[in-house]
# Entry
Amino acid sequence: MRPVQVLESYSIMMLSGLALGFVSGGFPSHTKEISMASLAVLMTLSLSNVGLGDARGKEHVEHSARALLINYGLLTGFILALGLFFSRDYWWGWVLMAAAPSAVSIVPFTTVMGGQTTKALFSTAVNYVAAILLMPAITLLLIGSAVSTESVVSSLLLLIILPMAASRLVMRLRIGKSANTIMINLSFALLIFAVTGANRDAFLGSPMIVLAVSAVGILRTFGTGMGTEFVLKRRGVAKSDRITYVLFASYKNLGLTATLAIALFEPIVAVPATICIVFEVLWVIFLVRYYQGVAE
# Structure
C-alpha cells in the first residue's frame, strides 16, 4: 500500500492514533488545546464542501427534533439507568455524562461515513442550544447543584460557529478531494492520539471498576447505536439519515464531561467519561467499516 493510500485510509489512521496514544501517553502538555484545535480544523474541513444555505427548512427542523429526542431521551435515559448501579462518586460522573450535549465530532463523522452533513450540523447546533437549559436542570435534579453552561456556550462558539465561518474561506481554496481527505484523517488521528493518551491511566485503576465502567461504555455506544440502526433500517429510513441518528444515539461530549467532573468534583468522578472515550473511538472506527458495506 502506497503512503498516500495509507493517509487516505480512515481506519488505518484512526487505529494508528489509538495505538500510539496508548503506547506513548499522548502529548506531555496542552492536550485540551491541541484536541480543540484538531476538532476545529476537522469541522472546518468537513464543512468546506457543504452549502450552509441548505442547512435550513422544515426537513432540517424535524431531523433536529428527532436527534435531540434520541440524544437527550434515549441515550441520556440509558446512561442514567445503568449509572444507578454505581456508588455516589461514579454516579455523579454518569449524571454529568447524561446531561452533556452530543459530541461536536458527529458532524465530521457524518461527512466521513457519507451521511447528510447539513442535517448533522443543524441538529448539533440545536442540541447545544438545548443543552444550555437541559444540562443545569439535569444536574440540579440528580446531583443537587447546577453546573455552569459556560463551557457549552464556549464549545458552541469555538467548535461550531467559528468553523462554519472559516469553512467559507477554505471553500475558495478549492482543495482537491484527496488532499482534503488526508488532512481530515491527519486531524482525526491527532485528536484520537491526544485523547487516548491523556486517558490511558483510567485503565490502570481498580480492575473491577474498570471492567464495570467498560461494560457500560460498550452498551451505551455499541448497544444504543446498533439498536438504533436496526430499528431505523427495519422502518425503511435511508442510510444517509440513519448515520446521523445512530451517532446521536451513541455520542456525548465526553471531553466536556471529564473537564466539568474534575473542575467541580474529584478526579474519580471523571473516570466514567475517560474510559468511555476509548470505546467511542473504537465505535467510530467500527461504524466507518460497517457503513462501507451497507448499501442502504
